[in-house]
Design a protein that fits this description.
four-stranded antiparallel sheet, Acyl-CoA dehydrogenase family protein, 9 strands, three-stranded mixed sheet, about 425 residues, Acyl-CoA_Oxase/DH_mid-dom, 12 helices, about 15% strand, flavoprotein, alpha+beta
Length: about 425
């Protein structure tokens, strides 16, 4: 494994690190204030528009996109540390047009969209002229198992008609959201993994109703998490993505790079929390000295550093495998990083909250928000249990194919008893 970075990748890291320090971190408080003062909690604060213009002018734009000539042409390994740097701020990924759900949707359109679909949707998304959302999760069923999806996509002549209900459709309440990519069933009688399809639905199509905006641990997200009803929503057949029955395969393809992006942003969350914990420990006095002199606090800091370094290496390995042998061959590692990343990030954030005491559960720091995000993301994009199932199946397959190997068995009676 070679985790060395090209001169171009290293230079991009330096430029993004400088941009974060000079522009993004100082703008966080401005962003929050403008959001609070605005009439619409989902409208883009003016400071974000300014940040996007600066990022684009400096060439720090669409760095996640590795397909064709659409983006910067970086490998997964080259992009990974950039995702981490952006992830150190909650607003960071959006500044560089590298935030979910748009990143996954843009990858879908770049890989599988027709030229007409790319002209209509992909180019405006790459230019940040519009936003998009992804409608998959449903309230009535366990949507982590895509076979459970109930939303129907029915062919009616030259149109598809959609009926169903989705929730936690992130991004749909953003006034700039113009596209919904919806996962539904076109043929419930087809083979299990050929029943689902993806459909491109303009946001203003009649029959799309946002029933409510769902909070996340009490926080209202700027993009909004919509509970959405689709009633006889009709779009042309040309709006199918790739073709009928391709939905499950497209979802799997969308999630591979996306999970690496999530994982490296989680490393960024953890690094930010560790930084805040160290600053608090050196500045705060308790029981006759700085918190940094307390053994338990030192252990929190040491364990956090060790866990972050382990996590980063695992994610870089996964990115390297995706680049060298492909997403399918890296399936176990990609599943593993989704579990490990949010577990580590949440644990480090929790320690930082504890070190801050009452301040940690307030909105005076970013920690409470990071706590909510890292916990929620252990459910979003596939819950931990689904990914653990994948890892376990891959591991057990080694033994089911070849049988137990002697080096894996303990023949010493005492050792076995121990």
């Amino acid at each position: 494994m070679d985790f060395g970075f090209s001169p171009r990748a290293s230079e991009l890291q330096d430029r993004m690190r400088s941009f974060m320090e000079q522009h993004v971190f100082p703008a966080e408080a401005v962003y929050d204030r403008q959001l609070a003062e605005g009439d619409n909690p989902h409208a883009l604060p003016p400071v974000m528009t300014e940040l996007k213009e600066k990022a684009r002018a400096e060439g720090l734009w669409n760095l996640f996109m590795a397909h064709g000539d659409w983006g910067a042409g970086l490998t997964n390994l080259e992009y990974a540390p950039l995702a981490e740097l952006a992830g150190r701020s909650i607003i960071g990924p959006e500044v560089f047009n590298c935030s979910a759900p748009d990143t996954g949707n843009m990858e879908l359109l770049a890989l599988y969209g027709t030229q007409e679909q790319q002209e209509r949707w992909l180019k405006p998304l790459l230019d940040a002229e519009i936003r998009s959302c992804f409608a998959m999760t449903e309230p009535e069923v366990a949507s982590s198992d895509a076979r459970n999806i109930r939303t129907r996509i029915t062919r009616d002549g030259d149109s598809y008609v959609v009926n169903g209900r989705k929730w936690y459709t992130s991004g749909i309440l953003d006034p700039d959201c113009k596209l919904i990519i919806l996962m539904g069933k076109t043929d419930p009688d087809a083979p299990t993994y050929r029943q689902q399809s993806m459909l491109l639905i303009p946001r203003d199509t009649p029959g799309v109703t946002v029933l409510r905006d769902l909070p996340m641990f009490g926080y209202t997200d700027r993009l909004g998490h919509g509970d959405v009803l689709f009633e006889n929503v009709t779009v042309p057949v040309e709006n199918i993505l790739r073709g009928e029955g391709e939905g499950f395969a497209l979802a799997q393809g969308r999630l591979g790079p996306g999970r690496m992006h999530y994982a490296m942003r989680a490393v960024g969350f953890a690094e930010r929390a560790l930084q805040l914990m160290c600053e608090r420990a050196t500045e705060r006095t308790a029981f006759g000295g700085p918190l940094a002199d307390q053994g338990v606090v030192r252990e929190w800091i040491a364990r956090s550093r060790i866990e972050i370094e382990q996590l980063r290496l695992l994610v870089l390995k996964s990115a390297w495998l995706m680049d060298t042998v492909g997403n399918a061959a890296a399936r176990m590692e990609v599943a593993a990083i989704k579990v490990a990343a949010l577990e580590v990030a949440h644990k480090v954030v929790d320690r930082a909250v504890q070190a801050h005491g009452a301040a940690g559960v307030s909105d005076d720091t970013v920690l409470a928000r990071l706590y909510a995000i890292t916990r929620a993301l252990r459910i979003a994009d596939g819950p931990d249990e689904v990914h653990l199932r994948t890892v376990a199946r891959q591991e057990l397959a080694k033994y089911r194919k070849t049988g137990p190997k002697s080096e894996h068995r303990t023949t010493d009676t005492k050792a076995g008893a121990a």
